[in-house]
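Example is below:
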Amino acid sequence: MNTSDQGDSGAIGRLSCSIVINSIVAVFEIVSGFIVGSLALIVDALHNVTDVSSMVIGLWQKRKIVATKTDSNNHYQKMAAMATFIIGTIILGTVIFVVFTAISRFTQPVEIISWQMAIVAAIALLGNLVASYLFKKERHSIKTIWRRSWQDALISLLVIIGALAIYWTHYWWIDPALAIVISVFLFKVIYEVVMEALNLIYAADNREAIKK
């Protein structure tokens, strides 16, 4: 195995680890978000899920470089892209629902367990920083994924600040306001991930058509 192959194999390993880390963080934040009553935590988790979808695409692109270009490899890459597209669509619907829920909370405030919210967001921040560090060597070859990983960390930091503000002021509207702000940014990320998935599906269909 040459140096290039070893580098690509290492990238696949780091991508796989990041997928696991971000998946755990996302599940942890969603469950905790329901427990503490925080919409901001839930939206932060959904951002992690979109990044996991993007990482899955990046993983298959790396595998395509290492593996022989076979019909099977093309098929699995197409399946991964289709799964990402479906997940992105589901997340879009969920985010829209969260936004409407957040708007309703301005008139019907929900008490937030802010100190737990801060702890959960801090754990998510740590996970995002670890994932970002794993991408350090690949920051040029998978620049978009590396950038989104750092965005995850910044959003988690924003949630921590919001949780501390709620703890000190008891202004419950801070949480739905944060959820809406993060959701607006998340709409752009979802669009990018869905379009990336569609482009890969289109490319896979073209390769299949040429072989026929």
User: Anything to note?
Assistant: The chain has one domain: 3-211. The chain is about 85% helix and 0% strand. The helical segments are 3-36, 39-66, 71-104, 114-134, 143-169, 174-211.
